[in-house]
């Protein structure tokens, strides 16, 4: 692997001085080549899908893996979106002259070589290559073995396109070895890889953080909450809870627990439980919530009934990523914040209230990448934030926090111009 | 240790909402208490110094460790400087409204709990506590055992002062255990410590990077170069080389290698070698330099003679941190850049030239925290950059690069205000 990483490092040096036009030409060529090669790519994809079917993989996994003409077009459209974004490289973040005459500029530059470890979705292969190329980085991809044939075909097309426009193909590489050992080698390649971005489940991310010597940007684990304050607009609260839980329950910015102020719980809980039951959401409730719900008829209508059980401490710490929602009644805003700080993962947290003062306390004191007042946590997303792209959502505090777009794939350096200054 | 870290974490939550006035009051009280307690502190320091003397520590180490009234006053003056700096917390880095009406603010916030591992200098204890408090962070210090008594007395005074103004003393903690094991526990306290900053030699930093699971900001290892281009102003080049090597050779922004374009080497090398020899600098030279110097009389005057030997590959990779300088003659700017990219540590690199085009190529393509045109590398420093403070010099690319002042001890979060938005 060392030889591959040295080639990526060499390519990244050449990429430092690419113009926006050169990078956009490469992205454009990548789109064209993907269309031209789409037959080979779809054939390769069929091999992967067939293998997954033979291995009796669940249909959700097959769906993530499978490509067709329309999905290929979506991928190419994504490339064109990235072309249209402004190039952040070269931006002067600040500039000043010192009393001794030194002129100091803080300039945005590429990070260098980015390592991305991900699982089965083939669109990630192209998206990631495009985002890193646009930001003047080289990328070393380590995809899952279930998408090996597809990724190989995709990368072949991308590298061919990059070469056609005269840039080094090694700006985009994928590791041929899809064993666990290739992850471990990649994340310890200090001096060759500048940052590792693991995109996957909590197991992968923990493994990477525990074993990496290269800096890591953690992404994606979200145990998110909505807190319904005593002065909440109840209709709004219900809409936001339903949206944040059910619009796409498998993603990291969906909520896992609702906290409800005790003074408003009797008004909120029966109504929202009915709506949740209609959408198939099961509840894990504390005793206070359980008592409120027991007073209601839990078979709402033909085929709609509430499934609930008492919540354990572990439930409050769990990212269900599905149609399960924990519920807890709290005596105060402070108590809600304490719960969030104890169980949250620093991803996205929302308060629903008409009380501006309570909202401000929540926004200031909840320590998370994105804190919301009267909005769904589902907006923590590069596209929803208006970044035009997303490489992941950081749940750590260094370098990048929350949605990461192009800017978050860059760093800076200081350029200092003098006329002979010494100390 | 876990209990201590939980207390630091709790204190850091309270610090999120401190006003600038509260933090400055605490810093002011810290200064007053240090003056009030200076007798106890100096007594404690004498114990440490005595122990170091008994252990026959070198005098440079004793000097770093020793405090006196004047050094105490310098430390207190440093606190007042930090009081006068602007508080970066709460700064809105950017703000925008989305088409759906969501108002998104990116706001500068504390990092949380900062762990700092350092060696013997007692001023670091106070400086670090002040910088982290000013930025709303809690700090867990892990000082060297040679300064244990001094640090204990200093921290006692600082915590007393913090308590006096009504803030939690646990904003500033020092680990009582000064064994290696306390480093290992600290750097693996994921979820309790938000960032580790190791301040020390290459051995400490490598150990931390290899074993940490908490994010690390690497500091300080500097294998820095001056490149004298073919079109250099020779007088300027010599002044800058002398300054960058000898003004303070033990620091990370001092240079370790001079690269000289072959077309100007005969004009530069004999003159600079004479000046270096007068200041006691020994050279490690390549064969081409050796031949140029052989043509000269190497005993310059009474007591001034050049000590040189042929450079090995290892010499070019070494941070001498003393009066040794490697020299190499290169055929081109590109060759100089290649050498720097191969041996440099991404700290500070300078080109001396009157050729603006060559300077721009150097500034753009040399990948280091600070790149200089016609100036000494010694300016890579928080004070020289005008930050008014410094917690270290980062040689990594994520989060912070180059001199780290107050801003580099902060992160950001997104505050999103809506009126019921859902996806």
TrEMBL record, chains A, B:
<dbReference type="InterPro" id="IPR016163">
    <property type="entry name" value="Ald_DH_C"/>
</dbReference>
<dbReference type="InterPro" id="IPR016162">
    <property type="entry name" value="Ald_DH_N"/>
</dbReference>
<keyword id="KW-0028">Amino-acid biosynthesis</keyword>
<comment type="function">
    <text>Catalyzes the NADPH-dependent reduction of L-glutamate 5-phosphate into L-glutamate 5-semialdehyde and phosphate. The product spontaneously undergoes cyclization to form 1-pyrroline-5-carboxylate.</text>
</comment>
<dbReference type="InterPro" id="IPR000965">
    <property type="entry name" value="GPR_dom"/>
</dbReference>
<dbReference type="Pfam" id="PF00171">
    <property type="entry name" value="Aldedh"/>
</dbReference>
<dbReference type="InterPro" id="IPR015590">
    <property type="entry name" value="Aldehyde_DH_dom"/>
</dbReference>
<keyword id="KW-0963">Cytoplasm</keyword>
<keyword id="KW-0560">Oxidoreductase</keyword>
<dbReference type="GO" id="GO:0005737">
    <property type="term" value="C:cytoplasm"/>
</dbReference>
<feature type="domain" description="Aldehyde dehydrogenase">
    <location>
        <begin position="77"/>
        <end position="291"/>
    </location>
</feature>
<dbReference type="InterPro" id="IPR012134">
    <property type="entry name" value="Glu-5-SA_DH"/>
</dbReference>
<dbReference type="GO" id="GO:0004350">
    <property type="term" value="F:glutamate-5-semialdehyde dehydrogenase activity"/>
</dbReference>
<comment type="pathway">
    <text>Amino-acid biosynthesis; L-proline biosynthesis; L-glutamate 5-semialdehyde from L-glutamate: step 2/2.</text>
</comment>
<dbReference type="GO" id="GO:0050661">
    <property type="term" value="F:NADP binding"/>
</dbReference>
<dbReference type="InterPro" id="IPR016161">
    <property type="entry name" value="Ald_DH/histidinol_DH"/>
</dbReference>
<comment type="similarity">
    <text>Belongs to the gamma-glutamyl phosphate reductase family.</text>
</comment>
<keyword id="KW-0641">Proline biosynthesis</keyword>
<protein>
    <recommendedName>
        <fullName>Gamma-glutamyl phosphate reductase</fullName>
        <ecNumber>1.2.1.41</ecNumber>
    </recommendedName>
</protein>
<keyword id="KW-0521">NADP</keyword>
<dbReference type="InterPro" id="IPR020593">
    <property type="entry name" value="G-glutamylP_reductase_CS"/>
</dbReference>
<dbReference type="GO" id="GO:0055129">
    <property type="term" value="P:L-proline biosynthetic process"/>
</dbReference>
